[in-house]
Amino acid sequence: MKVPFITKEEVEKIAKWCPTPFHIYDEKGIRENARRLNKAFSWNKGFKEYFAVKATPNPTILKILHEEGCGTDCSSLAELVMSERCGIVGENIMFSSNDTPAEEFVKAAELGAFINLDDFTHIEFLKKTAGIPKKIFCRFNPGGIFSLGESKEGFQVMDNPGDAKYGMTEEQLIEAFRQLADLGAESFGIHSFLASNTVTNDYYPELASILFRLAVRVKKETGISVSYINLSGGVGVAYKPDQEENDIMVIGEGVRKKFEEILVPEGLGDISIFTELGRYMLAPYGELVTKAVHEKHIYKEYIGVDACAANLMRPAMYGSYHHITVLGKENEKAEYKYDVTGSLCENNDKFAIDRMLPKIEKGDYLVIHDTGAHGFSMGYNYNGRLWSAELLKREDGSVVQIRRPQTLDDYFATLDDYWDI
Predict the structure, then answer these.
(1) CA distance 141 to 132
(2) Which of 315, 276, 287, 260 is nearest to 376 (CA)?
(3) Neighbours of 43 (CB within 10 A)
(4) Residues noted as catalytic
(5) Is 140:118 a contact under the CB 8 Å cutoff?
């Protein structure tokens, strides 16, 4: 059973000064989760989490995580600048980008960030635009199909790196290290991302074993001792209440065993392990709060809410499941089947389809769970819908606004004055 971190009484108070819909985050949960992750990898003296800014690009969130020892994983100029304005600079930034504009390499170099090259041809491009840094990463793509077979949930964890636009082949990466060393690079890192939102404790250890063996091959063929291995993201969350959650302590221990089995005997026991988690760090600690404003009875039963896919795209875009709690009715039986819909002029604007819920009446508040990552960040203005506010529930229980809602003036502010509207 998923339990909201916000109550009906709290929402009623908030709604007096911040109308629904709004995204709200749980500071206590965020901090506790970051501490668990750091504890799970504390066996590695160089471990660092680089939070994937793309998941939740809010400066307040970045500062909270930075206070817990996390850096930022940036993939654009705006994310680099956001990190800089939050006081996160230097090797606290991992710049992992693809099809990268020149000015973004320049900014990353200016900030002293770790630069992670996505493609072999980017070596020459980086050399001409920002210069080759002393420390450099390359992204690895093994090709083919990545599979873990049967996971503890009984389904197959599978992804298709061979069809992904990211990273270098193994031969390209080894040659890239040779060329980068000739150009003055002195420390090297390997980065890879092979599967998304895995709900199994086996993914990171399996990925680690692939990258650890690659580091051994690099040393044998080039003489280069890799200094860093970045496991990137991919550790997911249990969106459905009947799913078993990942155990980060078990995951960390699994990676440690591979580290000692593969790297230590090869004299590579000083390698620092990095992660770039977004969903795992934030998704369960964010909720979208919305109000039921309409009901419709035709061929199906519909509940219309004041949020829409512009506030949370994942169900419309991916068919993703997000659990829904009707506040104040947590203990009532789920005896009514609804489609829960937004107001966009698209039939996929549905947060739930044929979902069994307690009876919903107009005015009820609904909490849509696990929206703390890839929720607000994927918002948009289709149909002229405005971006909602972002709120933070502080550790003391107080609630503050950390991003105001967009206004109509904001919406029209970028129009050319010529149109004089």
Answers:
(1) 22
(2) 287
(3) 14
(4) 345
(5) no
Q: Catalogue the E-assigned strands of 66-175.
A: 71-74, 93-96, 114-117, 135-139, 146-150, 156-159
DSSP letter string, 250-284 = HHHHHHHHHIIIIIGGGT-TTPEEEE--SHHHHGG
Both tokens of residue 408? 């109509």
3-state secondary structure of 368: strand
With a CB cutoff of 8 Å and minimum separation 6, the contacts of 340 are: 302, 303, 305, 324, 350, 351, 352, 355, 357, 366
Polymer length of the chain: 421
- Distance, CA of 392 to CA of 201 (rounded, Å): 30
Q: Where are the beta strands (DSSP E) in 127-241?
A: 135-139, 146-150, 156-159, 187-191, 228-230
Asked if 193 and 166 touch (Cβ cutoff 8 Å), the reply is: yes
Return the closest-CA partner of residue 283 out of 42, 5, 9, 1.
5
Residue 385 CB neighbours (<10 A) = 20
Residue 289: closest CA among 2, 1, 12, 72: 12
| Alpha-carbon span 167 to 193, nearest angstrom | 9
Q: What is the CA radius of gyration of the chain?
A: 23
- Each residue of 378-402: pLDDT tens digit? 999 999 999 999 999 999 999 999 9
Tokens of residue 389, six digits: 């506010």
Largest CA-CA distance found in the chain, in angstroms, rounded: 71
Q: What is the pLDDT of residue 420?
A: 60
Contacts of residue 385, defined as CB under 8 A and 6 or more positions apart, other chains included, come to 308, 310, 311, 343, 344
The burial of 134, by beta-carbon neighbours within 10 Å (0-12 exposed, 13-18 middle, 19 or more buried), is given as: exposed
DSSP string covering 19-69: PSSEEEEEHHHHHHHHHHHHHHTTTSTT-EEEEEGGG---HHHHHHHHHTT
How sure is the predictor about 120, in pLDDT bands with cuts at 50, 70 and 90? very high
Beta-carbon contacts of 181 under 8 Å, excluding residues fewer than 6 positions away, are: 188, 222, 224
